[in-house]
Design goal:
The complex is a heterodimer of chains A (about 900) and B (about 250). Chain A is of the alpha/beta class and about 900 residues long. Chain A is built from 35 helices and 32 strands. Chain A is globular, with a radius of gyration of 29 Å. Chain B has a single domain (about 1-250), classed as Purple Acid Phosphatase, chain A, domain 2, CATH 3.60.21.10. The chains are: A alpha/beta (about 900), B alpha/beta (about 250).
């Protein structure tokens, strides 16, 4: 059962549950109990499962640990503390592990010295030992590991991957039978992904090993719906979730936030001027604060901002630092150290400082560009304010007009605590495959028994027996003939007795070396060949697909690939409109569904307040001439937003422009389908203004392109953005309202999943995801018999594997999981289905307009869209089609080359 | 599709039929590919042999056939003979026998050490080439000696494919046969029958076989197959021109 606790316990009541020495140490070192501590001490002392959601700097770690320390010191005082593991702490970050180790060592020493003072000789006579703590991660040396095996710490600090290894190591398991507590930190970074699903199974396997039913404590930033996070933490007992009490003190920190437009007019102000104003804003904020944290979203942005702050604003080398994931671990740790000491005036980060270690003295967070989600914005702003009663100050500086509306709405929602929701991945079969191998290594299992353990983990609580068996069949090598199972099989499965077990002596090292869910990726620096200037980074896998002459987008520009050399590659600027390789590898954050809907709703509210303006007044708004009278309703809406005056003016201008030009503003209830002419590509295009978040746009745009392709009989190019997508047929063709109606009818009547499957089958995304799933499922062994397989080799193999798997069974578990991952984690097929149903019943409408040139709302979609092509591959006469292309090019048939211009 | 009166390319498949000698021709099967990879930690499901059987079965329909001629590379691992490989070749031989077909192999560069299994497999093995009814079959890793009166030379080794840039700028590779002349004799280059065949593009790439040092490749015709069809794509030089044009369009 999941329950929320609303009333905090009294201070005396909270402290009374603690061991006297622990209590003494606590009151000597702290003046008060922070909000989460006022709930958690007592609940955990009562051995309740607890999920604590609270911002950084609210004493969260201590709130989760103090009652555990207290119970362990109780044992110590009774002389019953043995060399066993009683508590396991898991966090997704190694740096956080080191931090927690340090932060717990201090109280352990403090408490023990209090005991020593009071007991004197009895320490030895009564065998009162100190509680020990140890860290075990991928960095732990062999020597330390051996030591840990014979002398395990009482509190083990580890990562999800190391935990998965430990529970399958036959000797170490003995040390874990005594576990009574498990603490999962940064739960918001785990509950929503496969890494977390993996951890949830490890925890259930650990519970099987452990002699006691352990207490589970979860720590995290705010999550919505928080009950879902609680279910993730505690798992299931039968059909119901286990007990968990939710402590939500996430609202405790006060926020003071504002969206800042650096200039009044973001279109006609010269780029240099906008940049000047942005840096002026930054300087104003940074110099008024003690330490400022700036988020730029991208690595290149981080470097650029640091460079400019030194150059333009004359910040000194020792005042400012960069922090992003491509920096070495040492330099990141150094920056974190400096932050804790309060030695920096400003630190600039891509996204890497969003979570993790306590970074101390920051009192202000600037975000350059939208973080694309309310929760992420709150998480980032929450990094400011060292204590829970400090006010977290945050500014978002916007870079274009869509950004401006988005961020204004986002901060408004943040203040009102309207959070984005997250979802737990359901039944990822690749993660399951790893754990079945792990379980088979441990001992023999009856199928039903193993199935029940797996279903206790919340991400697998709805797992069907059929899928479970398909994974077992795969692992047993039942897809090859009997004689080959020696090579292919990882477990054996006796169908008559229904028992599984490990096969062969190599399977244990295979599990140990390949466990985990994070795929191998290597970053390649991209340089302009003429100037040798660094322009960005791409992934190794992306590089391996590039050939001389290929064109791809990077950082908003198009480049032509020339050559690769080691971990670098060289390009030149391309003078073309369309990339030849779609950038599925974008580092851009996707706009969340909830925030998108809020933006759509806001557009609806503000445009209906503005649309009745007299044309003269409206023109005044747009031209910024005179003093236009903004309707009262609109003014009230704008005044209620946490934004600066420039932003206020710019928003009403942007909306009014769209109203004057197209007569209509797309909202959360209406998709605008704009048929227009794009000067740049010299093509007629369709712009779908659909504001439901990027994952839905990803899904919907493909659905539309596939169906339009069938209607028009050609390949369709698409470009996707958070605010909509562009669809353009390769050859000029007349489109009208009827075409769109036919199209929409076709979509609402189709089996969405089947249509998408057929299309995605041949996509680069499918190949890439398949590789990840195949290596997670141990079908490609990244690490085999002591050799590491390079990424490009893995990739070639994945292509062969996929072909072969399709030939064997279209529902092969690894294929099935790849589709699931794409549909549910990259795209959002569930919500797209809902949207399509709402289009069908009319609760979301669409409207067709024809414009002579793209409307204002189209501009960012056209500029920043991510291009891809939906091919007509299913067509029977595909070979003929390809042949036609050749004839066209060599001039035997006319057409194509000469585009019809308007 | 017919090449002249005697040779037929079975629609949509990498296999040829020669009527006058009642033979099917296949090339570059690379059996044992999957187990070779499994040994390296890539557990490719076994589908190659299965798909080759399907190809042969399709070709047998309504045709009078007494033998299958393989122009080299029946197996995959050239450094040794794997047990799994031999098992697959055995299975293929048994399959052929059940259809009443004789198997004739002209050795390719991957077919080392196969001779000692000759009797066990019950197949005929020729070292460099094999001639019947005016047709000369050879693998193509070396240049064959030609005799007078040949109707056609048939080779493998090359794994030919053509590349086409589609309207949206994407590259598509399609497997193909090549037809042309070598020293005045008709030459047919077979595509690889392996399900997993790596492809070498005649549109961009350099040719693999030394045979092509004496052949005007641009003048050869590429006959592509796939998606259930076999279509003559015309001269390689034209395909190369189309690819150049496509690249120019993008710049």
């Amino acid at each position: 059962m999941i329950d929320r606790i609303e009333h905090e316990f009294g201070i005396e009541e909270s402290l009374s549950v603690l061991n006297e020495y622990v209590r003494k140490w606590f009151t000597e070192n702290f003046n008060e109990l922070t909000p989460p501590q006022r709930y958690a001490f007592k609940l955990i002392a009562e051995r309740k499962n607890v999920l604590i959601a609270s911002p950084t700097g609210t004493g969260k770690t201590m709130s989760g640990f103090l009652s555990i320390l207290s119970a362990l010191f109780d044992k110590a005082l009774e002389g019953k503390l043995e060399e066993k593991i009683y508590c396991i702490y898991v966090s997704p970050l190694r740096s956080l592990n080191n931090d927690v180790y340090k932060n717990l060592t201090r109280p352990l020493e403090g408490i023990y010295s209090l005991i020593r003072e009071s007991k004197g000789k009895e320490i030895i006579t009564d065998n009162i030992r100190n509680v020990t703590i140890g860290v075990r991660t991928g960095d732990t040396t062999q020597q330390e590991r051996r030591k840990m095996l014979s002398k395990p710490p009482n509190i083990l600090v580890t990562t999800p991957e190391s935990l998965a290894i430990l529970i399958s190591s036959s000797r170490f398991v003995e040390n874990m039978k005594s576990v009574e507590y498990i603490v999962v930190d940064e739960i918001h970074e785990l509950a929503n992904n496969k890494r977390g699903a993996h951890l949830s199974l490890s925890i259930e396997r650990l519970q099987e090993i452990s002699e006691k039913k352990f207490v589970r404590v979860g720590l995290g930033a705010t999550l919505h719906p928080i009950e879902e996070a609680a279910r993730y933490l505690v798992g299931m007992e039968g059909e119901k979730p286990r007990q968990c009490t939710v402590v939500d003190t996430s609202a405790v920190k006060k926020m003071d936030v504002i969206t800042i437009s650096p200039v009044e007019d973001m279109i006609y102000t010269k780029e240099g001027k906008i940049e000047d104003e942005i840096y002026k804003e930054i300087d104003r904020i940074v110099s008024a604060s003690s330490t400022t944290l700036i988020f730029t979203n991208t690595r290149s942005g981080t470097e650029r901002v640091v460079f400019n702050m030194k150059k333009r604003l004359k910040y000194k080398q020792e005042e400012i630092a960069a922090h992003h994931s491509s920096l070495s671990r040492e330099s990141r740790l150094e920056v974190e150290g400096l932050l804790k000491q309060g030695a920096l005036k400003c630190v600039v980060s891509s996204t890497s400082l969003e979570l993790g270690v306590d970074i101390g003295t920051i009192d202000n967070v600037i975000q350059l560009g939208s973080p694309k989600s309310v929760s992420r914005a709150i998480q980032r702003i929450g990094r400011a304010g060292h204590t829970y009663n400090a006010i977290a100050r945050g500014e978002v500086i916007v870079l274009n007009r869509d950004d401006m509306i988005e961020c204004s709405v986002m901060l408004d929602a943040a203040l009102k605590k309207h959070l984005d929701s997250f979802s737990v991945p359901r039944n990822p079969l690749d993660v399951l495959a790893q754990h079945i191998v792990g379980m088979a290594i441990d001992r023999k299992w009856e199928i039903k028994e193993a199935y029940n353990v797996v279903r206790r983990a919340y991400p697998f609580s709805t797992l069907q027996m059929e899928d479970f068996l398909s994974v077992i069949d795969y692992l047993a090598g039942n897809y090859v003939g009997l004689e080959s199972r020696r090579v292919y099989g990882k477990i054996w499965y006796d169908k008559d007795t229904g028992i599984i077990g490990k096969r062969g002596m190599f399977i244990r090292p295979i599990y140990m070396l390949n466990v985990g869910t994070i795929p191998d990726e290597v970053s390649i620096g991209v340089f302009e060949s003429s100037t040798k200037k660094w322009v960005g980074n791409i992934e190794e896998e992306f590089l391996s697909r590039l050939e001389n002459g290929d064109i791809f987008a990077l950082g908003g520009k198009l480049y032509m690939f020339e050559k690769a050399a080691g971990t670098k590659c060289y390009v030149s600027q391309a003078h073309s409109n369309t990339p030849t390789i779609p950038p599925w590898f974008s580092e851009q954050l996707p706009l969340s569904y909830e925030l998108a809907r809020l933006v759509g709703k806001f557009r609806g509210d503000i445009s209906s307040a503005l649309e009745n303006m007299e044309e003269d007044e409206a023109k005044k708004v747009v031209s910024s001439k005179g003093k236009p009278k903004i309707p009262e309703d609109a003014q009230r809406i704008l005044d209620g937003m946490p934004i600066n005056d420039y932003a206020r003016t710019a928003i009403s201008k942007y909306i009014t422009e769209q109203l004057l030009f197209a007569g209509i503003v797309p909202t959360d209830k209406m998709i605008l389908v704009e048929y227009t002419y794009d000067q740049k590509s010299e093509k007629d295009i369709l712009v779908f203004h659909s504001i439901f978040g990027r994952r839905i746009n990803d899904t919907l745009s493909r659905l539309i392109a596939i169906n339009l392709g069938v209607i028009l009989g050609q390949d369709i190019s698409i470009a996707i953005n958070d605010n909509g997508f562009v669809v353009s047929p390769d050859e000029p063709v007349e489109i009208n309202e009827e075409t769109i109606e036919t199209l929409m009818r076709k979509i609402t009547n189709s089996d969405i999943e089947a249509v998408l499957r057929g299309n995605i089958r041949n996509s680069e995304m499918m190949r890439r995801r398949f590789r990840h799933v195949a290596s997670r499922s141990f079908m490609i062994l990244r690490n085999y018999k002591g050799r590491r397989m390079p990424v490009n080799r893995q990739q070639i193999s994945a292509r062969l594997l996929m072909k072969a798997a399709e030939e064997i069974d279209p529902d092969f578990p690894i294929l099935k999981e790849t589709y699931r991952e794409i549909f549910e984690e990259v795209m959002d097929i569930g919500r797209t289905r809902e949207l399509v149903a709402r289009i069908a019943d009319g609760s979301v409408s669409y409207k067709f307009v024809e414009t002579v040139s793209p409307s204002p709302f189209s501009h960012t979609i056209l500029t920043f869209g991510h291009a891809d092509v939906v091919l007509m591959k299913d067509r029977n006469d595909y070979l003929r089609y390809l042949h036609g292309l050749v004839l066209d090019r060599i001039g035997i048939k006319k057409g194509r080359k000469h585009r019809v211009k308007k | 599709m017919m090449l002249g009166k005697d040779v037929e390319l079975i629609d949509g498949e990498p296999i040829a039929y020669i009527r006058s000698i009642c033979a099917l021709v296949l090339s570059d099967m690379h059996l044992g590919f999957e187990s070779y990879n499994a040994g390296k930690g890539i557990l490719v499901p076994k589908v190659n042999l299965r798909s080759i059987k399907k190809i042969v079965e399709k070709a047998l329909e309504g045709r009078s056939v007494s033998k299958i001629i393989i122009t080299g590379d029946i197996k995959n691992d050239f450094s040794t003979v794997e047990i799994e490989e031999i098992k697959e070749i055995e299975e293929f031989a048994a399959f052929a026998e059940s259809k009443g077909l004789e198997v004739v192999l002209v050795k390719g560069n991957h077919d080392n050490f196969i001779d000692k299994y000759k009797n066990r497999l019950g197949i005929k093995i020729h070292g460099r080439s094999f001639q019947e009814g005016g047709y000369l079959f050879f693998h193509g890793d070396t240049v064959p000696a030609i005799r007078k009166g040949l109707k056609m030379m048939v080779m493998g080794h090359e794994h030919p494919a053509i590349s086409i840039i589609s309207g949206s700028g994407r590259k598509e590779s399609v497997r193909c046969f090549l037809e042309g002349r070598y020293k005045g004799v008709k030459l047919l280059v077979m595509p690889a029958a392996s399900y997993f065949a790596g492809l070498s593009s005649v549109t961009y790439g350099e040719m693999l076989s030394p045979v092509f040092r004496k052949v005007d490749v641009g003048n050869m015709r590429a006959i592509a197959f796939g998606y259930g069809r076999t279509i003559d794509f015309g001269k390689v030089s034209m395909l190369r021109l189309a690819a150049r044009r496509a690249k120019e369009e993008r710049l």
